[in-house]
Amino acid sequence: MIIVMKRLLMMAVMLTMSIFSFSAKSQVSVNINIGSQPLWGPVGYDHVDYYYLPDIDMYYYVPSAQYIYFNNGRWVWVKNLPVAYRNYDFYNAYKVVLNTPRPYLNHRQNVVQYAKFKNYKTKQVVIRDSRDSRYSVVRGHANYKANNVRANQPSVGKGREQQRREAPRANDKHNNRGNERGDKGKGQPSHGNGHRG
Q1: 12-to-6, 8, 21, 23, 26 alpha-carbon distances in Å
Q2: pTM here?
Q3: Count of H helices and E strands in the chain?
Q4: How far apart are CA 196 and CA 45, in angstroms?
Q5: What is the C-alpha to C-alpha distance for residues 52 and 103, in angstroms, rounded to an integer?
Q6: Contact in structure between 42 and 193 (CB atoms under 8 Å)
Q7: Which of 4, 134, 141, 193 is the most exposed place for a label (fewest CB within 10 A)?
Q8: Quick check: is 95 in a domain?
Q9: pLDDT, tens digit (0-9, with 9 covering 90-100), for 32-70
């Protein structure tokens, strides 16, 4: 009887350990989305849900790569920027990282809190310009690696061409009022330059 009890106890301990191990691995995979962040995103964040763009009063949702802005009394989700913003310089604009669910629903508060970053002149280092190896998983980065194998190294010209293709494009034909699949709060709001998420 004692041997059976010991075996059952050992099995329970092993099962508990494997559940915690699986849970920890799942948490890491959910909380790191560097490869989904755009080339114009600021460096220093392992996970980003939303960017707030104070200059154009708009949000960007990283998981679905959609822009969110208020239009005619409702929040509109689109894959491409409205034509009015086709010349917006994402690489030199200040981006506020927000890791809270649906931050656009607190828009008035965000406008007040982040007003100091509108037309902010201090440049954030963006993923495109980072030499940190963590960002080599971002498509279009100069050191982009696919499947952890160094891809063909692009020439400077090819890298810039890829950057142009990856940069936001204006086209309001796709008025996608998308959903927020997988949109769950993953931490406290974070912002600023160089903060690690």
Answers
A1: 10, 6, 14, 16, 21
A2: 0.61
A3: 3, 7
A4: 5
A5: 9
A6: yes
A7: 4
A8: yes
A9: 888 899 999 999 999 999 999 999 999 999 999 999 999
Dist. CA 94–CA 120, nearest whole Å: 6
Domain count across the chain: 1
Q: pLDDT per residue over 132-156, tens digit each?
A: 888 888 888 888 765 444 433 333 3
Q: Which residue range forms the structural domain that includes residue 51?
A: 32-166
First-to-last C-alpha distance (Å) of the chain? 51
Q: Which amino acid is at 80?
A: N
Task: Say if CB 60 and CB 151 are below 8 A apart.
Answer: no
d(CA 193, CA 46): 14
Asked, for residue 177, whether it belongs to a domain, the answer is: no
